[in-house]
Amino acid sequence: MSTDTSDAVAPDDAPFTDDARALERADDGLAALAARRRDRWYPTFHIAAPGGWINDPNGLSYFRGRWHAFFQLHPFGTSWGPMHWGHVSSADLVTWRREPVALAPSLEAERAGVYSGSAVVGTDGLLHLLYTAHRWRNGRDEGAGNLEVQCAATSRDGVRFEKRGVVVGNPDGLRDFRDPKVWRQGDAWCMVVGRQAPDGRGEIVLYTSEDLASWSWGGVLYRSPDESVRMLECPDLFELVSPSGRRRWALCFSAMGARPSGYLMRNRDNAGYLVGTWEPGAPFHPETEFLPLDWGQNFYAPQTMGAPDGRRLMWGWMRPAGALPVQDDGWCGQLTVPREVTLADDGTLRFRPARELAALRTESGVLGATELAPDEVRTVLEDDGGALEVELTLDLAASTAERAGLCVHATPDGCHTLVAYDDQTGRVVLDRHAVGAGERGYRAAPLGPGELADGTLVLRVLIDRGSVEAFVNDGTQTLSAYSLPSDGPRAVRLVSEGGTLAVRSLVWHRLRSIGLDGRASAP
């Protein structure tokens, strides 16, 4: 009988390369890309890698006095590639420092990448990462499909991790089975995972554990009613309490395959949420429709964490719609600013920039109440300095403009991005038809009947070197998008199209760096 085992399949937990060496190679790759990085659009106050490609936020946690944000990372190029986990940490949620690459593919189960996951502090005092391991069935490419399982790693210091191997297998051999999100529920641990069911429909399934190592099947938590949705990525389930004391669960996920419908589902894949009820051991029962977490072109794969003070914080990935010119600059991808997530009494979610971000303000200016004539353009700042926050309050009831708001990233060649109220649609638009470079197009977030009747619109707009995030009426809606300006000063202007604009107030704040725009890859 032959004893040749050259074609035998190695165990999932077997290493195919030295883990320490894989991490070292990843850090070296980042350093090489950072050394040639061009900073014209590189973010000042958003988390990004020093070079290379990033996507989903992962492992959001608070451990040993520091906030930790991990993210999907390709450290050897500016397009998507074999996934690693990048890592930054902060003592105050304001100033961040780079940490060494946290995870690199080194086990057979993860030959093609260490995919998204989450982090929790265990009862043993360790930081536990739960993540998806991804490999190709034929060992070379996606030609024969892939196989995904859930793995674990632990750390005593929050920086160096020891892999624990596979903790949830894939007995059905599903192609899409990923993105574990773990939390403590009473005396047990719960994990939700997104998958494509055997019949091709997107589902979220539940597992439970007493020790974060041995997991038991808990059933299907939620199944998409939309037959066009083939996968529910990056699931997240958490409980919130409204101001009136109403308790509800929010189920967030990113729907792959949903078809566009009017203003909804306009992106390639779409991140949204449901609010409803849930009891451990039972399915999730939605009470709302699937609502966008953000109406912009570049928001995807968000993850939340519970802060020590009880707040729920969310980061999202600003996902490019296609190739971006920043890829020629040695980097691609950034996270949104951290957002506080709350539940309103009407059963919908609210999103506001984390209050700690006010500490980034260095200089402020105030424009009092004023009125713009029909078709007037008025410059507020000749140059935004690369990082700016604008708080704008408009009196819609006293205005006659068809569209009115802010032109940002306005350069001498006439390029700009518009954040404005459109009176014909009753929506706030983020319009990039005249942006300097990269993606164009627009998105529009609705105002509710009560907001329209109130006649006041409050916009809070965060302007980085290459992006815009707009928060509407204290977080009822948000819009996030890349905005790559042309060369030259980047002005901020008030505009009024087709009528007058009554401005109640405008306050601007220049913002400092969060500490990640240097070129060092890690301490």
Explain what the structure shows.
The chain is mostly beta strands and 523 residues long. Helix content is 4%, strand content 47%. The chain has 2 helices and 35 strands. Strands 23, 24, 26, 31, 32, 33 and 35 form a 7-stranded antiparallel β-sheet that branches. A 6-stranded antiparallel β-sheet has the order 25-34-27-28-29-30, with no helix packed on it. It has a 5-stranded mixed β-sheet with strand order 4-3-2-1-20, covered by helices on one side. A hairpin with a 5-residue loop joins β21 (339-343) and β22. It is globular, with a radius of gyration of 23 Å.
In total, the number of strands is 35
Low-confidence runs of at least 5 consecutive residues? 1-9
- Amino- and carboxy-terminal Cα gap: 55 Å
Shape summary: globular
Percentage beta strand: over 45%
- Helical fraction equals under 10%
Specify Rg, calculated over alpha carbons.
23 Å
* Number of DSSP helical runs: 2
The major pleated sheet works out as: 7 strands, antiparallel
Q: What structural class should be given to the helix and strand makeup?
A: mainly beta
The overall average pLDDT, rounded, is: 95
Features:
seven-stranded antiparallel sheet; 2 helices; 35 strands; six-stranded antiparallel sheet; mainly beta; 523 residues; single chain; 4% helix
Which helices and strands occur, and which strands form pairs?
Blueprint lengths: L18 H17 L16 E12 L2 E9 L9 E7 L5 E3 L14 E9 L5 E10 L9 E10 L6 E7 L8 E9 L2 E9 L5 E8 L5 E9 L7 E11 L5 E10 L12 E9 L7 E2 L4 E2 L7 E7 L5 E6 L13 E2 L6 E5 L5 E5 L7 E7 L2 E3 L4 E5 L6 E8 L7 E8 L6 E6 L4 E5 L10 E5 L2 H6 L1 E8 L3 E6 L4 E6 L8 E7 L3 E11 L12
Parallel strand pairs: 1-20
Antiparallel strand pairs: 1-2, 2-3, 3-4, 5-6, 6-7, 7-8, 9-10, 10-11, 11-12, 13-14, 14-15, 15-16, 15-17, 18-19, 19-21, 21-22, 23-35, 24-35, 25-34, 26-31, 26-35, 27-28, 27-34, 28-29, 29-30, 31-32, 32-33
